[in-house]
Write a structure and sequence with these properties.
eight-stranded mixed beta sheet, single chain, globular, 48% helix, alpha/beta, 356 residues
Length: 356
Protein backbone atom coordinates (compact mmCIF):
# COMPACT_ATOMS: atom_id res chain seq x y z
CA UNK A 1 0.00 0.00 0.00
CA UNK A 2 1.36 3.46 -0.95
CA UNK A 3 1.42 5.82 2.01
CA UNK A 4 2.88 9.24 2.72
CA UNK A 5 3.53 9.96 6.41
CA UNK A 6 4.17 13.33 8.09
CA UNK A 7 5.22 13.55 11.75
CA UNK A 8 4.19 16.19 14.29
CA UNK A 9 7.81 17.11 14.92
CA UNK A 10 8.14 18.09 11.24
CA UNK A 11 5.14 20.41 11.60
CA UNK A 12 6.54 22.12 14.69
CA UNK A 13 9.75 22.78 12.80
CA UNK A 14 7.87 25.38 10.75
CA UNK A 15 6.97 27.48 13.81
CA UNK A 16 9.08 30.53 14.68
CA UNK A 17 10.33 31.42 18.15
CA UNK A 18 7.71 34.18 18.28
CA UNK A 19 4.97 31.69 17.34
CA UNK A 20 6.06 29.39 20.15
CA UNK A 21 6.02 32.27 22.62
CA UNK A 22 2.48 33.22 21.59
CA UNK A 23 1.36 29.60 21.93
CA UNK A 24 2.94 29.37 25.38
CA UNK A 25 1.04 32.50 26.50
CA UNK A 26 -2.20 31.06 25.15
CA UNK A 27 -1.70 27.69 26.81
CA UNK A 28 -1.05 29.44 30.14
CA UNK A 29 -4.31 31.37 29.88
CA UNK A 30 -6.21 28.22 28.94
CA UNK A 31 -4.81 26.31 31.90
CA UNK A 32 -6.29 29.00 34.14
CA UNK A 33 -9.60 28.60 32.30
CA UNK A 34 -9.60 24.86 33.00
CA UNK A 35 -9.45 25.60 36.73
CA UNK A 36 -12.69 27.52 36.30
CA UNK A 37 -14.15 24.64 34.23
CA UNK A 38 -13.55 22.29 37.13
CA UNK A 39 -15.17 24.61 39.67
CA UNK A 40 -18.21 25.21 37.43
CA UNK A 41 -18.62 21.47 36.87
CA UNK A 42 -18.42 20.48 40.55
CA UNK A 43 -19.48 23.42 42.71
CA UNK A 44 -22.90 23.49 44.38
CA UNK A 45 -22.57 27.12 45.44
CA UNK A 46 -24.37 29.56 43.13
CA UNK A 47 -22.27 32.49 44.31
CA UNK A 48 -19.06 30.56 43.62
CA UNK A 49 -20.34 29.57 40.17
CA UNK A 50 -21.14 33.21 39.42
CA UNK A 51 -17.62 34.30 40.42
CA UNK A 52 -16.05 31.63 38.21
CA UNK A 53 -18.27 32.57 35.28
CA UNK A 54 -16.97 36.13 35.54
CA UNK A 55 -13.41 34.83 35.76
CA UNK A 56 -13.99 32.69 32.69
CA UNK A 57 -15.44 35.61 30.72
CA UNK A 58 -12.37 37.68 31.56
CA UNK A 59 -10.01 34.88 30.51
CA UNK A 60 -11.81 34.35 27.20
CA UNK A 61 -11.70 38.08 26.49
CA UNK A 62 -7.95 38.07 27.14
CA UNK A 63 -7.43 35.04 24.91
CA UNK A 64 -9.55 36.63 22.19
CA UNK A 65 -7.52 39.83 22.32
CA UNK A 66 -4.27 37.88 22.09
CA UNK A 67 -5.52 35.90 19.09
CA UNK A 68 -6.57 39.13 17.37
CA UNK A 69 -3.09 40.53 17.96
CA UNK A 70 -1.47 37.43 16.47
CA UNK A 71 -3.76 37.34 13.43
CA UNK A 72 -3.39 41.06 12.77
CA UNK A 73 0.30 40.37 12.11
CA UNK A 74 -0.52 37.47 9.75
CA UNK A 75 -2.94 38.54 6.98
CA UNK A 76 -3.11 35.00 5.59
CA UNK A 77 -5.21 34.00 8.60
CA UNK A 78 -8.67 35.50 8.11
CA UNK A 79 -10.96 34.98 11.13
CA UNK A 80 -14.56 36.02 10.47
CA UNK A 81 -15.10 37.87 13.75
CA UNK A 82 -11.72 39.62 13.50
CA UNK A 83 -12.23 41.05 10.01
CA UNK A 84 -16.03 41.45 9.63
CA UNK A 85 -18.31 44.22 10.93
CA UNK A 86 -19.20 43.90 14.60
CA UNK A 87 -22.91 43.72 13.73
CA UNK A 88 -22.37 40.21 12.33
CA UNK A 89 -20.44 38.79 15.27
CA UNK A 90 -23.45 37.74 17.32
CA UNK A 91 -24.80 35.60 14.48
CA UNK A 92 -21.52 33.70 14.14
CA UNK A 93 -21.03 33.37 17.89
CA UNK A 94 -24.49 31.84 18.27
CA UNK A 95 -23.88 29.48 15.34
CA UNK A 96 -20.62 28.23 16.86
CA UNK A 97 -22.34 27.81 20.23
CA UNK A 98 -24.97 25.55 18.62
CA UNK A 99 -22.28 23.45 16.94
CA UNK A 100 -20.39 23.08 20.22
CA UNK A 101 -23.47 22.13 22.23
CA UNK A 102 -23.45 18.46 23.19
CA UNK A 103 -27.26 18.39 22.85
CA UNK A 104 -27.21 19.43 19.17
CA UNK A 105 -28.27 16.35 17.19
CA UNK A 106 -26.90 15.18 13.86
CA UNK A 107 -29.50 16.76 11.55
CA UNK A 108 -29.32 20.09 13.35
CA UNK A 109 -25.52 19.89 13.36
CA UNK A 110 -25.51 19.43 9.56
CA UNK A 111 -27.86 22.43 9.20
CA UNK A 112 -25.45 24.67 11.10
CA UNK A 113 -22.47 23.31 9.16
CA UNK A 114 -24.25 24.35 5.96
CA UNK A 115 -24.83 27.84 7.34
CA UNK A 116 -21.21 28.06 8.44
CA UNK A 117 -19.76 27.30 5.02
CA UNK A 118 -22.14 29.71 3.33
CA UNK A 119 -20.70 32.44 5.58
CA UNK A 120 -17.15 31.28 4.84
CA UNK A 121 -17.83 31.51 1.10
CA UNK A 122 -18.95 35.11 1.57
CA UNK A 123 -15.86 35.88 3.65
CA UNK A 124 -13.53 34.58 0.93
CA UNK A 125 -15.33 35.48 -2.29
CA UNK A 126 -18.25 37.84 -1.76
CA UNK A 127 -16.74 40.64 0.29
CA UNK A 128 -17.85 44.26 0.26
CA UNK A 129 -14.85 45.17 -1.89
CA UNK A 130 -16.49 43.52 -4.89
CA UNK A 131 -18.21 46.40 -6.67
CA UNK A 132 -18.74 44.47 -9.90
CA UNK A 133 -22.11 42.66 -9.90
CA UNK A 134 -23.89 39.92 -11.77
CA UNK A 135 -27.64 39.96 -12.38
CA UNK A 136 -29.96 37.03 -11.82
CA UNK A 137 -33.29 37.12 -13.64
CA UNK A 138 -35.55 34.45 -12.19
CA UNK A 139 -39.02 33.24 -13.10
CA UNK A 140 -41.39 33.31 -10.10
CA UNK A 141 -44.49 31.14 -9.49
CA UNK A 142 -46.76 34.19 -9.98
CA UNK A 143 -48.45 34.10 -13.42
CA UNK A 144 -51.36 36.55 -13.00
CA UNK A 145 -51.89 38.84 -14.83
CA UNK A 146 -48.67 37.79 -16.65
CA UNK A 147 -45.67 35.62 -15.88
CA UNK A 148 -43.61 37.49 -13.26
CA UNK A 149 -39.82 37.76 -13.14
CA UNK A 150 -37.46 39.22 -10.54
CA UNK A 151 -34.02 40.75 -10.92
CA UNK A 152 -31.38 40.21 -8.21
CA UNK A 153 -27.90 41.68 -8.01
CA UNK A 154 -25.13 39.45 -6.57
CA UNK A 155 -21.34 39.82 -6.32
CA UNK A 156 -19.52 38.90 -9.52
CA UNK A 157 -17.16 36.16 -8.33
CA UNK A 158 -16.46 34.61 -11.73
CA UNK A 159 -12.80 35.62 -11.79
CA UNK A 160 -12.26 34.30 -8.25
CA UNK A 161 -13.93 30.90 -8.69
CA UNK A 162 -12.70 30.16 -12.21
CA UNK A 163 -10.19 27.28 -12.22
CA UNK A 164 -10.94 26.27 -8.64
CA UNK A 165 -10.72 22.61 -7.61
CA UNK A 166 -12.24 21.16 -4.43
CA UNK A 167 -9.64 19.05 -2.61
CA UNK A 168 -11.39 16.76 -0.14
CA UNK A 169 -9.62 15.32 2.89
CA UNK A 170 -11.88 12.35 3.55
CA UNK A 171 -14.02 11.75 5.47
CA UNK A 172 -15.19 14.64 7.66
CA UNK A 173 -14.46 17.15 4.89
CA UNK A 174 -16.70 15.54 2.26
CA UNK A 175 -19.98 17.32 3.01
CA UNK A 176 -18.32 20.72 3.71
CA UNK A 177 -16.54 20.46 0.35
CA UNK A 178 -19.85 19.76 -1.38
CA UNK A 179 -21.43 22.77 0.36
CA UNK A 180 -18.65 25.10 -0.77
CA UNK A 181 -18.75 23.75 -4.32
CA UNK A 182 -22.52 24.33 -4.36
CA UNK A 183 -22.00 27.97 -3.29
CA UNK A 184 -19.55 28.43 -6.15
CA UNK A 185 -22.04 26.93 -8.58
CA UNK A 186 -24.85 29.18 -7.34
CA UNK A 187 -22.82 32.40 -7.53
CA UNK A 188 -21.06 31.67 -10.81
CA UNK A 189 -22.74 33.25 -13.84
CA UNK A 190 -21.97 30.05 -15.78
CA UNK A 191 -23.04 27.59 -13.06
CA UNK A 192 -19.44 26.42 -12.68
CA UNK A 193 -19.14 23.05 -10.91
CA UNK A 194 -15.73 22.47 -9.39
CA UNK A 195 -13.77 19.34 -10.18
CA UNK A 196 -13.01 17.21 -7.11
CA UNK A 197 -9.78 15.63 -5.89
CA UNK A 198 -10.26 13.10 -3.08
CA UNK A 199 -7.50 12.36 -0.58
CA UNK A 200 -7.78 9.53 1.92
CA UNK A 201 -5.85 10.88 4.88
CA UNK A 202 -6.05 10.08 8.55
CA UNK A 203 -4.08 10.97 11.61
CA UNK A 204 -3.01 8.22 13.98
CA UNK A 205 -5.14 8.92 17.05
CA UNK A 206 -3.28 6.31 19.09
CA UNK A 207 -0.46 8.86 19.35
CA UNK A 208 -0.20 12.08 21.35
CA UNK A 209 -0.19 15.63 20.03
CA UNK A 210 3.62 15.74 20.07
CA UNK A 211 4.12 12.31 18.43
CA UNK A 212 1.19 12.42 16.00
CA UNK A 213 1.57 11.00 12.49
CA UNK A 214 -0.53 11.91 9.44
CA UNK A 215 -0.97 9.12 6.89
CA UNK A 216 -1.98 9.79 3.27
CA UNK A 217 -3.27 6.57 1.68
CA UNK A 218 -2.64 6.97 -2.03
CA UNK A 219 -4.26 3.65 -2.95
CA UNK A 220 -7.65 4.92 -1.76
CA UNK A 221 -7.29 8.50 -3.02
CA UNK A 222 -8.76 9.71 -6.31
CA UNK A 223 -7.15 12.64 -8.10
CA UNK A 224 -5.44 13.72 -11.30
CA UNK A 225 -2.21 15.68 -10.80
CA UNK A 226 -2.58 17.39 -14.19
CA UNK A 227 -6.02 18.64 -13.16
CA UNK A 228 -4.49 20.33 -10.08
CA UNK A 229 -1.48 22.03 -11.66
CA UNK A 230 -1.88 25.79 -12.00
CA UNK A 231 -5.33 25.74 -10.37
CA UNK A 232 -6.75 27.39 -7.26
CA UNK A 233 -6.96 24.58 -4.72
CA UNK A 234 -9.75 24.81 -2.13
CA UNK A 235 -9.80 22.70 1.04
CA UNK A 236 -12.89 22.74 3.29
CA UNK A 237 -12.77 21.03 6.69
CA UNK A 238 -14.96 21.69 9.75
CA UNK A 239 -11.94 21.64 12.06
CA UNK A 240 -8.30 22.58 11.74
CA UNK A 241 -6.68 21.25 14.89
CA UNK A 242 -3.02 20.66 14.07
CA UNK A 243 -2.85 21.49 10.36
CA UNK A 244 -1.11 18.16 9.77
CA UNK A 245 -3.52 16.64 7.26
CA UNK A 246 -3.53 19.72 5.03
CA UNK A 247 0.24 20.14 5.14
CA UNK A 248 0.71 16.44 4.31
CA UNK A 249 -1.50 16.65 1.22
CA UNK A 250 -0.17 19.97 -0.08
CA UNK A 251 3.49 19.03 0.46
CA UNK A 252 2.89 15.77 -1.39
CA UNK A 253 1.35 17.63 -4.35
CA UNK A 254 4.25 20.08 -4.46
CA UNK A 255 6.74 17.20 -4.44
CA UNK A 256 4.89 15.73 -7.45
CA UNK A 257 5.46 18.94 -9.39
CA UNK A 258 2.03 20.51 -8.90
CA UNK A 259 2.27 24.31 -8.79
CA UNK A 260 -1.08 25.65 -7.55
CA UNK A 261 -2.09 29.20 -8.43
CA UNK A 262 -3.23 29.53 -4.80
CA UNK A 263 -4.43 27.45 -1.86
CA UNK A 264 -7.40 28.35 0.34
CA UNK A 265 -8.34 26.51 3.53
CA UNK A 266 -11.88 26.91 4.96
CA UNK A 267 -12.63 25.94 8.58
CA UNK A 268 -15.54 26.43 10.92
CA UNK A 269 -13.18 26.28 13.90
CA UNK A 270 -9.40 26.46 13.76
CA UNK A 271 -6.92 26.08 16.57
CA UNK A 272 -4.34 28.83 16.82
CA UNK A 273 -1.47 26.34 16.62
CA UNK A 274 -2.88 24.63 13.55
CA UNK A 275 -3.37 27.95 11.77
CA UNK A 276 0.18 29.09 12.47
CA UNK A 277 1.63 25.77 11.35
CA UNK A 278 -0.27 25.92 8.05
CA UNK A 279 0.75 29.44 7.05
CA UNK A 280 4.36 28.81 8.07
CA UNK A 281 4.54 25.54 6.13
CA UNK A 282 2.76 26.51 2.90
CA UNK A 283 3.38 29.52 0.70
CA UNK A 284 0.53 31.16 -1.19
CA UNK A 285 -2.15 29.93 1.25
CA UNK A 286 -4.94 31.80 3.01
CA UNK A 287 -7.00 30.39 5.88
CA UNK A 288 -10.63 31.43 6.25
CA UNK A 289 -12.13 30.43 9.59
CA UNK A 290 -15.35 31.38 11.37
CA UNK A 291 -13.86 30.93 14.81
CA UNK A 292 -10.46 30.46 16.40
CA UNK A 293 -9.95 28.33 19.50
CA UNK A 294 -6.96 28.85 21.77
CA UNK A 295 -5.42 25.48 22.49
CA UNK A 296 -4.97 21.75 21.87
CA UNK A 297 -5.01 18.97 24.44
CA UNK A 298 -2.50 16.12 24.65
CA UNK A 299 -4.55 14.09 22.13
CA UNK A 300 -4.46 16.97 19.61
CA UNK A 301 -8.14 17.79 20.03
CA UNK A 302 -9.18 21.42 19.83
CA UNK A 303 -10.12 23.01 23.17
CA UNK A 304 -12.87 23.88 23.85
CA UNK A 305 -13.71 22.46 20.40
CA UNK A 306 -16.90 20.66 19.40
CA UNK A 307 -15.96 16.99 19.48
CA UNK A 308 -15.42 14.80 16.41
CA UNK A 309 -16.98 16.85 13.62
CA UNK A 310 -16.73 13.95 11.16
CA UNK A 311 -18.78 11.67 13.42
CA UNK A 312 -21.27 14.44 14.15
CA UNK A 313 -21.81 15.00 10.40
CA UNK A 314 -21.57 11.44 9.11
CA UNK A 315 -22.36 9.26 12.11
CA UNK A 316 -19.87 6.73 13.44
CA UNK A 317 -18.56 3.77 11.46
CA UNK A 318 -19.16 0.29 12.82
CA UNK A 319 -16.19 -1.19 14.64
CA UNK A 320 -13.90 -2.78 12.08
CA UNK A 321 -16.13 -1.81 9.14
CA UNK A 322 -15.21 1.67 7.89
CA UNK A 323 -17.44 2.90 5.08
CA UNK A 324 -15.94 3.65 1.70
CA UNK A 325 -16.70 7.01 0.14
CA UNK A 326 -19.68 5.97 -1.98
CA UNK A 327 -21.29 4.25 1.02
CA UNK A 328 -20.75 7.42 3.00
CA UNK A 329 -22.51 9.43 0.29
CA UNK A 330 -25.41 6.99 0.23
CA UNK A 331 -25.83 7.36 3.99
CA UNK A 332 -26.40 11.11 3.66
CA UNK A 333 -29.94 10.38 2.53
CA UNK A 334 -32.17 11.90 -0.14
CA UNK A 335 -32.31 15.41 1.35
CA UNK A 336 -28.55 15.90 1.07
CA UNK A 337 -28.00 13.92 -2.12
CA UNK A 338 -30.81 15.79 -3.86
CA UNK A 339 -29.45 19.19 -2.84
CA UNK A 340 -25.90 18.43 -3.99
CA UNK A 341 -26.66 16.17 -6.94
CA UNK A 342 -24.33 18.01 -9.35
CA UNK A 343 -21.42 17.73 -6.92
CA UNK A 344 -22.16 14.06 -6.24
CA UNK A 345 -22.19 13.28 -9.94
CA UNK A 346 -18.67 14.71 -10.30
CA UNK A 347 -17.47 12.84 -7.19
CA UNK A 348 -18.87 9.52 -8.38
CA UNK A 349 -17.32 9.98 -11.83
CA UNK A 350 -13.96 10.78 -10.19
CA UNK A 351 -14.02 7.62 -8.07
CA UNK A 352 -15.26 5.31 -10.82
CA UNK A 353 -12.77 6.69 -13.35
CA UNK A 354 -9.85 5.89 -11.06
CA UNK A 355 -11.21 2.44 -10.18
CA UNK A 356 -11.64 1.37 -13.78
Amino acid sequence: MSKIILKAEDLDGYLSAKDLDYLSQMDSLYRHAMVSFNILATSTSESQKHREEQTLIDLYNRMGSLMQEICAAEPRIQVYSFVSPQETHGEVSRLIAKLRDVSTGRQEFVYYIQRAFELLFTLAFGGSGRTNKNYLIVRTPVTIPVQNFAVHKIPNVDDAVHDTVMCVMLRGALLPSMILSKEIQEYSSTGYITPFALFKIKRDDTKSETTMEYVLDLDHSYFDLAQLDGKHLLFADPMNATGGSLVTVVKYLLEQGVKPASVKFFNVISALKGSLRVVRAIDNITIYTLWMDPSLNERAYIMPGLGDAGDRINGSDEEGHPRDMLRLVADYGTNITGLYRSQLRIIEETVLRHRS
